Prior knowledge:
Blueprint: E1 2-3, E2 7-10, E3 13-17, E4 28-31, H1 34-42, H2 49-70, H3 74-89, H4 97-112, H5 118-145, E5 153-156, H6 171-180, E6 186-190, H7 197-209, E7 212-216, H8 221-226, E8 232-235, E9 239-241, E10 246-249, H9 252-261, E11 266-269, E12 275-276, H10 293-296, E13 297-298, E14 301-302, E15 315-318, E16 325-328, E17 331-333, H11 337-345
Parallel strand pairs: 5-6, 5-8, 6-7, 8-11, 9-12, 11-16
Antiparallel strand pairs: 1-2, 2-3, 3-4, 9-10, 10-15, 13-14, 16-17
Helix pairs in contact: 1-2, 1-3, 2-3, 2-4, 2-5, 3-4, 4-5, 5-6
Amino acid sequence: MIDTITMKWKDWTLYLIDQRKLPLEEIYVPCSDFREVASAIKEMIVRGAPAIGATAAFGFALGAREMAGKASDWGDFLEKMKKVKETLAKTRPTAVNLFWALERMERVMKEFGHLNGIAERLEEEAIKIAQEDIETNKAIGRHGAQLIEDGTALLTHCNTGSLATVDYGTALGVIRTAHEQGKKIKVFVDETRPYLQGARLTAWELMKYGIEAILISDNMAGWMMKKGLVDMVIVGADRVVANGDVANKIGTYSLAVLAKHHSIPFYTALPTSTIDLSKKTGDEIPIEERSEDEVTHCGGRRIAPEGVKVMNPAFDVTPAELVTGIITEKGIIKPPYEENIRKVVGS
Ligand code: MRU
């Protein structure tokens, strides 16, 4: 059974909190078909790298249940499952956890090798992925909290909390652990234009946990640093590659440059399932381009002239040289990343 704020799995239905509507409305969207799961990822009902991975795993199990009922034999089933995997895989390109979860589900499916009981076996694996995610985040929190002293002022970007994971969070998990340890901390929250994950989701989560949150618009971060108000920057990641380059929400790169200029440590926190050793540098990471409307509109209202040209990359890549450390469930990885990442995750 999975029952968290982000997702609930019950009787072959995945209920996802509609993150597009938060913090104003708390509505759960039921998905009992893999196509519905794919569209929930694409439409950002669910978002955040680890949450996307676990959601896709449940989508894969749902697809297997449907295809097992339709397939004439194991070969036919595998053929049909290719389509299921492809539908789920082509939703969002940057967060590698999506592909990591689908690969794991496919491996388990192939090892199982027969139709009788396949859907149940895959359901079991999806639940395992979701449960592991929670444990992993708590371990990330324990490692990362060692870096945070009493009285630290942090700055974070996007949303990396319970909502971006199955539960607890990555970068926000580190912040939560420090708070649970009794450290008095405060957090500057970038609003994170254009999708406003910081203003809508992170501010909401921090307030719920009783952690002091100060919402700023993204362009204020540099000035806060200049004024000496920020001791540490901590963000999540959608993909970290072999040389330590980090893809994360657009705006992360600017923060890392600013942090370097002001000699402020810049950390990223992530499960090792976010590490993609198949890519050597950040240049190889596919960056999702999203709808123009997200930039031309705010809160459903047009704010820019009709016909203006727009770019809307949803992520950027921070070069490894700007990253002070990578916090994972297996410990904190320090430079040289090329060598030390492999030591932690193997090759
Ligand atoms: O577009 P989103 O909201 O899915 O982007 C999310 C982020 O960039 C997060 O920082 C990242 O996934 C890490 S979440 C633990």
